[in-house]
Amino acid sequence: MHDAELLATVDDARREIAGGWVAVTGGVVTAIGSPADPAPAAARRVDARGCLVTPGLVNTHHHLYQNLTRAFAPALTGGLFDWLVTLYPLWSRLDEEAAYVSAYVGLTELALGGCTTSTDHLYVHPRGAGDLISAEVAAARDLGMRSHVTRGSMSLSVKDGGLPPDSVVQDDDEVLADSQRLVAAHHDRSPSALTRIALAPCSPFSVSTSLMARTAELADELDVRLHTHLCETQDEDAFCVETFGRRPVDYLQDVGWMTDRTWLAHVVWPSPDEVTRLGAAGVGAAHCPSSNMILGSGLAPVAELRSAGVPVGLGVDGSSSADSASLWLEARTAMLQGKLRHGAGSTSARDALEIATRGGAACLGRAGEIGELSVGACGDLVVWPLEGAAFAGALSDPVEAWLRCGPVAARHTVVAGRFVVEDGVPARPGLDEQLAVHRRVSAAMQAAV
Ligand SMILES: [Zn+2]
């Protein structure tokens, strides 16, 4: 990749190189240079004139299966709890075909928006649904995307004081045994891993205390990461105080999750003291600005979290609450929310780019491996065209232009040196066939109730 308008490496020195080039060999960045440096010979050269080149964006929170019930009108009448209660019965129809096709379509959508690594949090495992997590892993591998699939779980149904119906919860032993099986089957510990697994009980209001605590012990034993939703809404604060006599962060501490193995989705409502405690523990946060606005959850204290030392990444969140899955859009929204909270001079496009790349890598325990372009890092990069009417007159600062103009999608999205998106379209043929399957599965799910 050569002759970029600007190459924003987001490396340790935050080097930005006008006319820069990146060489990727064997899936890894092997050299970076300016027009004055001789570029190595390459089997393939990609012209990036007129384009910004960045590291691939990292998605730290998602529920891919929810694109089967995207923008589902009956669910948009109340806040998070009403929304969930409306949708749980539809999601109880999930099976392996639905998990595969929703992941295939959702990861394709993410790649078109410049994402190269995505997490997923699949926490609905209806009885008899099959191996949903392995179906997702297969979709990511077919597409060549880097994925951190989390084994989600719910164990606290309505009859036990939780929110979900009985048909979508499992008991602790079943969840833990399956978690162990999936880590053994798919978790790759190498620095250039394409697939990793994390453990992810869903939330305080859908999981028993014992499952939270036992999952933390298992993650320690298997040396994998922990993920859950926390501090998303004020309703959740009230639920925790009423049910556990504790606020969410105290509850997290009680169940052994205050460790740098953990990253949390949302983190909208921690108190200032809780922000400090999360930072001291090295707990990460997946900031999901669109979802937090659509569900009316609130504005997350992102600057405060980052100042306290919390690694903050970006998440598109599930497609039923954020509907659009573009990390470019989330980065722009994060920038706008930051300015709204702290003034026009705060939260630059570079801050948002940093959250979307290095911040995400830190949340996933992959600092230095992904989220930056430096020698030895994974060869994941995005070529963004800064051309046409939307960018006219904007190139005095290509990074600010990238996020303040647009909208823009990736021209090329490259994972481990391979094109996932080339010239603005998916590199792997077959999307139309997958969309036809998706239409059928989605219609059946929405007709089920
Ligand atoms: Zn979520």
TrEMBL record:
Gene3D superfamilies: Metal-dependent hydrolases (3.20.20.140), Urease, subunit C, domain 1 (2.30.40.10). This is 8-oxoguanine deaminase. Its EC number is 3.5.4.32. Residues 52-386 form the Amidohydrolase-related domain. It comes from the Bacteria. Keywords: Hydrolase. One of its GO terms (molecular function) is 8-oxoguanine deaminase activity. SUPFAM superfamilies: Composite domain of metallo-dependent hydrolases, Metallo-dependent hydrolases.
